[in-house]
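Take a look at this chain, tokens included, and explain the fold to me:
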Amino acid sequence: MAADRAGALPPGARLGILGGGQLGRMLALAAARLGIRTHIFAPEGEAPACDVAADCTRAPYEDEDALAHFAARVDAVTYEFENVPLRSAQFVDSLVHLAPGPLALAVAQDRLTEKDWLSAQGLLTAPYAAVEDAASLAAAIGRLGTPALLKTRRLGYDGRGQARIADAAGARQALSAIGTVPAILEGEVRFIAEAAALVVRGADGRAL
């Protein structure tokens, strides 16, 4: 039941999911309620999504033979989170419909790229600056002020890969805390409430 790149998945279709964590598990359960069978692709290790999916392939994301075998057994593929290697996603997309596509993944997995993209769309973000080393961090603090948050550009989540800088004197300690990796400094935004919205665009172009 191959799905074309514009069509929605009907009941009985096979959806591949890159990633086998708790988000993949929730996605597989939701798909099952719609009559869609899921096939998880996940590296070795804990993969709770495999417990509730119809099929599961365990292999490194870099294993293109395993990815090709996986892609041949599904009608479309998605991913559970943004930390799937971009090259793996591009390879899968060359074989079967991947949604969201590799470009969306590339934007979502780099905080600086994501902020630049949002700004280019005219959306407001917290003030930010790229950080590569101690000198660029000092310059960023001089421009944005403190308090501020220093974050790794990639892979951080749930507070990991982040350090708060209360004043300029804490810059070196914050840089040491996140490691010598490309980073982004964000000016602190004071707020009294927070709201989250999820917007989804279907294959037919409709947004919900």
